[in-house]
């Protein structure tokens, strides 16, 4: 193993790490907002809203993320009306295209997680909230949202890890994330093991942090279900 290559390129990997975290954080935040709206549409009594939400999740869960990213980055530039409109200011930038693709994909999967949690809400407890005279807003904030979060936390943690790994695809549209830097290092020094072992360690480290955070979050959310031992 050539440690000189690793030491020399380590600052580049750190820049790639920052970009990876930026894309992951942005996609998760925007995806969470969009997913919440889509999930509510899925359980809506309106057939139009229901079908629209189902079509969105089916489309982005049913096609590979790489295809979605290519369609957004390379495909949108094919249309003259896009290039001649203000939209081109965004679509000509690989960062925006990567963030958009990751956000839409994440929103589709997260919306399905939230939808499954919503349909599993204990109806008796929900009816009890209204029977006690709670207002709709209070029911949503004090019962529905916390319950959905508890029911979703395990599946959502897996989705976050999946999105972390999915960010590696942005290197295919010229962005220098962790994987993008590894590819450049490999092409420059012809040391594939050194180039990608550093990338692998960084991804493993991020996965470990995410797993730890969600484990603590899950323990906190389910604390009321834990039985206390008798002293």
Polypeptide structure, described:
The chain contains 10 helices and no strands. The protein has one domain (3-220): MetI-like fold. The chain has helices spanning 3-42, 47-62, 65-75, 80-83, 88-91, 94-118, 123-131, 136-166, 178-189, 192-221. The protein has 231 residues and is mainly α. Helix 1 (3-42) crosses helix 6, helix 1 packs across helix 10 and helix 6 (94-118) crosses helix 8 (136-166).
What structural keywords apply?
single chain, 231 residues, mainly alpha, MetI-like fold, 10 helices
Structure summary:
The protein has 231 residues and is mainly α. It is built from ten helices and no strands. It is flat.
Layout: helices, strands, pairs:
Elements: H1 3-42, H2 47-62, H3 65-75, H4 80-83, H5 88-91, H6 94-118, H7 123-131, H8 136-166, H9 178-189, H10 192-221
Helix pairs in contact: 1-2, 1-6, 1-9, 1-10, 2-6, 3-6, 6-8, 8-10, 9-10
Report low-confidence residues grouped into runs of 5 or more. Answer: none
Tell me, rounded to a whole number, the average pLDDT: 90
Number of strands: 0
Tally of contiguous helical segments: 10
Number of domains: 1
- Backbone CA Rg: 22 Å
Biggest sheet layout: none
Helix content: over 70%
The CATH H-level homologous superfamily: MetI-like
* CATH architectural category: Orthogonal Bundle
CATH topology: MetI-like fold
The SSE order reads: HHHHHHHHHH
* Shape assignment: flat
Q: Tell me, what is the CATH class?
A: Mainly Alpha
Distance between the termini: 55 Å
What is the strand content? Answer: under 5%
């Amino acid at each position: 193993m050539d440690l000189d290559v690793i030491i020399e390129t380590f600052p580049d990997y750190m820049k790639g790490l920052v970009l990876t975290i930026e894309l992951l954080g942005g996609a998760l935040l925007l995806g969470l907002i969009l997913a919440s709206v889509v999930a509510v549409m899925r359980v809506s009594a309106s057939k139009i809203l229901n079908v629209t939400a189902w079509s969105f999740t089916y489309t982005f869960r049913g096609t590979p993320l790489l295809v979605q990213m290519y369609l957004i980055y390379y495909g949108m530039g094919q249309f003259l009306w896009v290039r001649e409109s203000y939209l081109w200011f965004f679509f000509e930038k690989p960062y925006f295209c990567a963030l958009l693709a990751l956000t839409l994909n994440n929103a589709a999967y997260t919306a399905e997680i939230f939808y499954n949690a919503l349909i599993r809400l204990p109806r008796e407890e929900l009816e009890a909230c209204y029977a006690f005279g709670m207002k709709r807003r209070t029911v949503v904030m004090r019962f529905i949202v916390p319950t959905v979060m508890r029911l979703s936390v395990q599946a959502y943690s897996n989705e976050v890890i999946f999105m972390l790994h999915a960010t590696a695809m942005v290197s295919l549209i010229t962005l220098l994330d962790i994987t993008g830097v590894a590819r450049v290092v490999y092409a420059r020094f012809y040391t594939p093991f050194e180039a990608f072992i550093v990338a692998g360690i960084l991804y493993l480290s991020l996965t470990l942090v995410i797993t730890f955070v969600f484990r603590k979050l899950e323990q906190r959310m389910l604390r009321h279900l834990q039985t206390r031992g008798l002293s």
